[in-house]
């Protein structure tokens, strides 16, 4: 993806796009992917970086949603299981089959979870990832060496998917770009263009890097901005009622030794009624999540002290080695764009995660809700409204079968896996220039060639883009990312033609962000 080339397309004011998408998280990218699969011309605009918000801060699970099954949301679970199975086929370099173990401390729990998970298996049909089964106490301890053993009767194993969320978002963007879509990060929408009947005909936008302003024409405009959807709705109609209730979920990242195996731990009941996961991911352990109502949507939300304490205390009840604040390598927070409940006091865990597509009087199409796993189906359901708005024929969706950028049947080993078929080209850069073989940080396998690749091929324009979302160091070890920032900034400055003043500003900006990922012991 070349940002300058895509900016040149944006500068062509004579062009009318079939679809303009506002938002470059999982929802907006799902729309762009589906639209391009139907032969439509697509432009997507993201005010920050792709997946900068919620879409890079998930629990890293591609899952049907065991707890949604317990709540009786069968339709959502069926849809998610189908999408989960297909995504593992379409992006084998970014997804994998992850076994989970629920530790069992009562025979009632054994019966309850065994039956529930057999139903979960059955619902997945041919796309099932593995059979759930009860395992003995000794096997549970062998597979989860650090699990609390007092009163342990065994465990129930089941299978779900795991993924790298920010890298998957990037792969979807690259897939759409490869197919002819125009995607741009750091371009914000400043206003909506309307005709004399009040129908939307395009957008006023601004490049946040050089402050250049553009206008573009589009037959259909889609608001896929997640927790910021209300801002676009109010841009369309200042009297629009608020639709979104942000709900914060945090995750703590610690060393893998706190769990001890390759299996993930699922804690089915916490004292606030949610489930808690401890998932091995990129050599660390990701533990979460919480569900805390927040009134204001922020691009860089921060974990509350009570959330950090809740996750640590809950995890401690299941681990032999009790994690403390000092053990946390990074903490990250994301905001779920839940539908604002009509009744006061409704619990967020009870609000459906199903997505909704709403068409305003102006023909603004808004996609809200949903979950990462169903991003593609959310996009398909949104693009289905194209015919209704434009009165033009719409080709059937082809996105279900689309292999994502980097797809390969020979997934590279180790940290190279997330690049898929691109890994070879990055390794070639390092072969041609020995200085690019240097590690970015001694505790991580990533090398400087990956920074060059991110700037040249993956539209990374800020140090944070590289250290948070192209390479996941910021959310794996925030201090390591801070220690690596100067090295990354210097390489990026060479690639992007920037001066020492740019490096200084980038380091200052990155420090402000990275400090929010550090826990004050």
UniProtKB/TrEMBL annotation:
Transmembrane spans: none
Domain FAD dependent oxidoreductase: 18-353
Organism name: Algoriphagus marincola
Cofactor(s) this protein requires: FAD
Pfam families: DAO, DAO_C
Protein family according to the UniProt entry: Belongs to the FAD-dependent glycerol-3-phosphate dehydrogenase family.
Alpha-glycerophosphate oxidase C-terminal domain boundaries: 366-500
Protein name, as recorded: Glycerol-3-phosphate dehydrogenase/oxidase
Keywords noted in UniProt: FAD, Flavoprotein, Glycerol metabolism, Oxidoreductase
Stretches of the chain forming a coiled coil according to its record: none
InterPro entries: DAO_C, DAO_C_sf, FAD-dep_OxRdtase, FAD/NAD-bd_sf, G3P_DH_FAD-dep
